[in-house]
Amino acid sequence: MPILVSCWHCKRAVLMAPRLTERELVWLWDHLGGCAPDDPSIGLGVENVLRHFRVVEIEGSAGTDRAARNGGRYAR
Q1: Over the stretch 15-51, which tens digit does the pLDDT of each residue have?
Q2: What pairs with residue 13 in β-bridges?
Q3: 14 in a domain, yes or no?
């Protein structure tokens, strides 16, 4: 499932991707450096960078279909 990442500091959606890879983590690190440059905890590791972001899974269009949610029980 794709994920949506938003920044706690600037309140913007900053990334939408199929999953978090090293490339996306570097991009988030760069965003955080520009968004909160005075935070000394930015350089302490990946876990610390991720605490500055909200990561949620995005439900696809198939997931919103009633038949898909209920295993096809209501399929026509």
Answers
A1: 999 988 989 988 898 898 888 777 766 667 777 888 8
A2: 6
A3: yes
Helix (H/G/I), strand (E/B), else coil: 46? helix
pLDDT digits (tens, 9 = 90+) for 52-64: 899 999 886 655 5
Q: Are 4 and 62 in contact (CB under 8 A)?
A: no
Spatial distance between the Cα atoms of 2 and 4, rounded to a whole number of angstroms: 7
Single pTM value for the model:
0.67
- State the residue range of the domain holding 28: 3-69
**Cα separations in angstroms, 5 against 34, 37, 43, 44, 55:** 16, 19, 19, 20, 5
Q: CA 6 to CA 55: how far, in whole Å?
A: 7
Total domains, the chain: 1
